[in-house]
Design a protein that fits this description.
The complex is a heterodimer of chains A (about 260) and B (about 290).
Chain A lengths: L1 H23 L17 H8 L1 H34 L5 H9 L6 H15 L5 H26 L3 H8 L4 H30 L2 H6 L7 H10 L4 H29 L2
Chain B lengths: L10 H4 L3 H21 L2 E4 L3 E6 L2 H8 L1 H34 L2 H16 L2 H12 L4 H8 L13 H26 L2 H9 L4 H12 L1 H17 L2 H7 L6 H10 L4 H35 L2
Antiparallel strand pairs in B: 1-2
Helix pairs in contact in B: 3-4, 4-8, 4-11, 5-8, 6-8, 6-12, 8-11, 8-12, 9-10, 11-14, 13-14
Classes of the chains: A mainly alpha (about 260), B mainly alpha (about 290).
């Protein structure tokens, strides 16, 4: 009984900041306050009418879409190579491929800033896209590898024994079977890129405000409840798209 | 992640890893190597990076009292956050490992939620809760637990409160994985031999979950000492840590060699801890194999 009382408190602690952000999006005061006073939807309206927020959202979407395209191709190929290839140091290569998940973003950001400064990519969109692809590819690799582990490679052998070429086997047998993993990885990559802040802060040019950068800079000074409203919208997107994917991927990992 | 050996492997298929390898060399490993080299280059204010070689930036970071204070604060933050995550994460993971079906899915969802919301958004929530006249302080004062507001914003305490929440899921997931791996027959056997619930927990469950505690701790410590968003928004310039110092050197002061030196000092501390944890884990396994 004691255990569940303690766990209920810890669960409340875990949920607190998210609940607070959502609640303050509806306050009638001119600043975010919890508990909120009154009820209004005007902060959502103000977000949707704000050129700055829409511009930031558009930039984040373009960045996320482009980096996701790259990450999906690189990640799917890498997962296939790791699962189907036989070469020395495969475990080491896998470890390097997954390392961007936990590598300190602050260090990678500084390293890329210096490198980009030398090759003329500093403050450019292509530079940011390349960096985001680095950060999101490991998640595509994980999801695709999980899908690859689910089916029997004998079906590929069967296709090849029946005379299908390597390429034909890939497109007609392997790809359809791993499609759920590829799609999940792509969606995940998109959301992670859309949310990414630290590396973007280092690499964004003067006029380039992604949505997380826009929120971050507004929090450094003073914040209005419209920041709560845009945050609530982000949370909602995550819940609708991210949770099913995350559960699927974790279930596989902890199966 | 372990990779199962399977039939149908070929060297040719292995070539598929090359594009991503090239991408990482170009956009991660190469730049990191450049940063490492630059951290040994001379730097003069106003004139920029010099061609000379020096260890002055590392020496400066490890001897200057102001920087040593930041190093100490960052390590302390890592340790305190890791301890709190162990303390709060253990009961949560233990509870989680005993649930099945829908109840487990719900608690799992609660644990995952912080991972699923962006760092900025979560930190924003804490800023609202932790301010001097925020909900937490007003509640504490209404309950008569404190007379005046506790200074959470722009303080170490505030960073810890927010960072533990952000990193707790990683600890819970690591612990949950090892707790689920404990063979229930061992526990049953102990029960049948007459051990009480407390004794089973202390003598069996706890020692068997040490690997999860170690891997979770390494992960949480790494993420805590390199965290940037939470210390910069909740701590602000008044409570600098290594990550905010790196950002300041990189973006405002443009002293990249010094920024690089701090970055590699941070990586070194993380790697050192990782090696210690591996050593501890190995010792634990040896002892279990010897059956003591």
């Amino acid at each position: 009984m004691m255990l569940w009382a303690v766990n209920a408190l810890i669960a409340l602690y875990l949920l607190a900041p998210v609940l607070v952000v959502v609640a303050t999006a509806f306050t009638t005061t001119g600043y975010p306050v919890f508990p909120p006073r009154g009820f209004t939807l005007r902060w959502f309206e103000s977000v949707l009418n704000s050129r700055e927020f829409l511009e930031a959202m558009r930039l984040s979407a373009v960045l996320a879409a482009a980096s996701t395209a790259i990450a999906t191709v690189l990640g799917t190929l890498a997962a296939l190579g790791l699962a189907r290839g036989s070469f020395r140091g495969r475990q080491a290569v896998a470890a390097i491929f997954l390392s961007p998940i936990f590598f300190p973003a602050i260090v990678l950001g500084l390293a890329l800033l210096i490198f980009y400064n030398r090759v003329g990519l500093a403050g450019t969109l292509p530079g940011m896209i390349a960096a985001h692809a680095v950060l999101t590819t490991p998640f595509v690799i994980r999801m695709v590898m999980a899908s690859l582990a689910e089916f029997d490679p004998a079906v590929e052998e069967a296709a090849e024994n029946l005379g299908a070429s390597r390429l034909r086997t890939f497109f007609q047998v392997t790809l359809p079977l791993i499609r759920p993993g590829v799609v999940a990885g792509a969606v995940f990559a998109f959301i992670l890129s859309f949310d990414e802040l630290v590396v973007s802060l280092f690499l964004a040019g003067p006029g380039m405000q992604t949505l997380p950068i826009r929120i971050f800079t507004s929090l450094e000074y003073s914040s209005r409840p419209d920041v709560s409203a845009i945050s609530t919208m982000l949370i909602l997107v995550w819940l609708l798209v991210g949770v099913p994917l995350y559960r699927r991927y974790l279930d596989i990992r902890h199966a | 992640m372990t990779i199962q050996p399977r039939a149908g492997r070929s060297w040719g298929a292995g070539a598929l890893v090359l594009p991503n390898l090239a991408w990482l060399v170009l956009f991660m490993l190469g730049p990191l190597l450049t940063l490492f080299v630059i951290s040994f280059r001379g730097y003069e204010a106003g004139r920029g990076i010099q061609d000379s070689w020096t260890v002055a930036h590392y020496a400066n970071f490890l001897t200057d009292p102001y920087h040593l204070e930041i190093l100490g604060r960052t390590m302390r933050l890592g340790l305190v956050v890791t301890l709190w995550c162990l303390l709060l994460g253990y009961p949560l993971a233990y509870g989680l490992s005993r649930l099945r079906g829908f109840a487990r899915a719900i608690l799992y969802f609660v644990v995952l939620l912080p991972l699923l919301t962006s760092a900025v958004v979560r930190t924003f929530g804490w800023m609202i809760l932790l301010s001097n006249n925020g909900f937490l302080n007003r509640t504490l004062m209404d309950l008569g637990l404190t007379e005046g507001p506790i200074r959470f914003m722009y303080s170490m305490d505030g960073i810890i409160v927010a960072l533990v929440q952000v990193l707790l899921p990683f600890m819970v997931l690591a612990l949950d994985a090892t707790l689920l791996n404990i063979d229930p027959r061992i526990i049953e056997a102990a029960r049948n031999l007459g051990a009480g619930a407390v004794r089973v927990f202390v003598q069996i469950t706890l020692p068997l979950s040490v690997p999860g505690m170690l891997s979770g701790s390494v992960l949480v410590f790494t993420l805590a000492v390199s965290a940037f968003v939470t210390p910069s928004l909740i701590g602000g310039p008044r409570v600098p840590v290594m990550a905010t110092l790196i950002y300041q050197q990189g973006m405002s002061l443009l002293n990249w060699p010094f920024g690089g030196a701090i970055a590699f000092a941070m990586l070194a501390s993380v790697i050192a801890l990782f090696l210690v944890a591996m050593r501890l884990g190995q010792q634990g396994r040896d002892r279990q194999e010897r059956g003591t």
